[in-house]
Write a structure and sequence with these properties.
heterodimer, A: mainly beta, OB fold (Dihydrolipoamide Acetyltransferase, E2P), three-stranded antiparallel beta sheet, 2 helices, 8 strands, about 40% strand, B: alpha/beta, Peroxisomal Thiolase, Chain A, domain 1, 2 domains, nine-stranded mixed beta sheet, two-stranded antiparallel sheet, 11 strands
Chain lengths: ~130, ~375
Amino acid sequence: MGHRSSIPLYWRLQKSKYNLVGTKCKTCGKLYFPPRQLCSECRRKGEIEDFSFSGKGEIISFTVIRAAPEGFEKYTPYAIALIKLEEGEVISGQIVGDVTKVEEGKKVKSVFRRMHEDGKDGVIFYGVKFQLVG
Amino acid sequence: MKRVAIIGAGQTKFDEHWEKSLRDLSTEAGALALADAKITSKQVDALYIGNMSAGRFVGQEHLGAMAMDNAGLNPKPAVRCEAACASSALAFRQGYMSILSGEHDIVMVGGAEKMTDLKGTGAIATLMGAGDQEWESSIGNTFVGLYALIARAHMKEFGTTREQMAMVSVNNHKNGSLNPLAQFPCEITVEDVLNSTLIADPLRLLDCSPITDGGAALILASEEAAKKLDNPIWVLGTGQASDTLALHDRKSHIEMIATKVAAKKAYEQAGLTSEKIDIAEVHDCFSINEILAIEDLGFCKKGDGGKFVEQGKIARDGEKPINTTGGLKSIGHPVGATGVRQIVDITKQLRGQCGKLQMKGIKNGLALNVGGSGATAVVNILGVD
């Protein structure tokens, strides 16, 4: 399982993994999700602060994973999409539910879900997935 | 300007080599290149080896020392270059620049990867190290998943069809069927591709390059050193460019900006335009990526890559022969070795050593090696005098 079972790694990302907290550059207004601590536009003139994304967005492309990496085998088939958030940033996310209902252009909202487990007796990792709306 | 020549080229058979280790493969490839160059190992000043993930595939790091030691070339300097699937084109470029700098006269550049010691799901997870571990791998995405997202976006934007993608695999297998070093030297049909197992919709098993063990190596020489030797192939231009690590952070999901930037630089250095390129080796890790490459290298208008394939223009008798020896799809894709393997094949084509696959009347060739879902692109152009 390697990196995905790392508790410190997950712990330091929990704000973003649990609640879609990204960052915003106060200088130019650019938003970042996943969060960045250096604004690519303003460089040293940038000033980064936390920014909470609403979790509402639209699917711009998707796939259905049928051959999964280690740790995700039991979840197949599952859908993964590029989601354009209403704030304009694009992120990768799993879409929960029936994979045959997933389509480009459909609206989604974020939901808090189990992501994977570290074996039978290990830690359970939670995070944000997305659900079709309407 | 100073010039650099390729004076030796070698490739192991690409295969599932249970009987050979990573060090066996890297040593074999290097020995083949040295023998081809007709020089002795003593004449080599340094080694650059491309490798993506030996640490995860076989638990071995410190690849420069490993390769140098097993080649019996100590105490000369050795460097490992890593840029995921573009690792060895990068090693080639670093070796090339070390000669241009005046530091070295003759260098060995190569690549090797040993992928089949891990079980399939382990290899899938390891390859995903080329993406963004924190935000792509962690949600269960895979490499074929990333290219599937690109494929669907390309189909929607430009009307690229499932059949056109299948034709990429058919073309490359047709060529690879005559390549004695290919892992899967067999012909396939469009129906075979469309009926193969779905891996990540819309991509199927026969859209995907395989998991492979193998090595490839080249000997590079300064113009002065090369003039004493026979039949050099010249490096006409090189370019490398970077883009965001994660696919979701790109400005566009239907083109590879890094390919465009690297190609522009390589074309400028070579004094050539895309129309003047005789043959190309492009990075068909997944069928859709050959279509992107055709467009982003400027062989056709953006969005017309699928039609370009359908019209047979990439065939060996077409207007722009691509992957004339089988591509990643048929030859196999030992990730860290592929970039140099592409250059080995262009070298052999330019020297007239490709047997049944020999292309006639060619003066130059281009190789595009892509790392990750497009975060690294390396373009190298070779030619004869």
